[in-house]
Amino acid sequence: MSLIATLDNFRPKALAVLRIASSLFFLQHGLAKLIRFPYVEQLANVPLLSQFGIGGIIEVVGSVLILIGLYTRAAAFVLSGLAAVAYFQFHSPHSFFPILNGGELVALFSFVFFYLIFAGPGAWSLDGRRGEA
Prior knowledge:
mainly alpha, 71% helix, globular, Oxidoreductase
């Protein structure tokens, strides 16, 4: 078996690792806003019914759905859009270049979630058990 064929066999599992890791990293943003864990000083006093608070709710719910691979494509669509809005609203006005405006991470999240819309959840997902992968 060739190296390419071997790597292709692991594609669904590699996609699942990307899905799980990305959702866990993104989940931290929502939890920091909603329950102050992990503690981030800039996010410590976010009112629940503010744009940041509602964003935090969407981040937590969407991240958990992607983490377990349930309604992955729909959740990824919402989170990709949320991250894109965050980038254009809060980062791009400071500079065109993400490295200068501090928006590299949020832009990367947007593109990873955008990819998941099309790629689906990969292995180890509830969508797969439901036949929706």
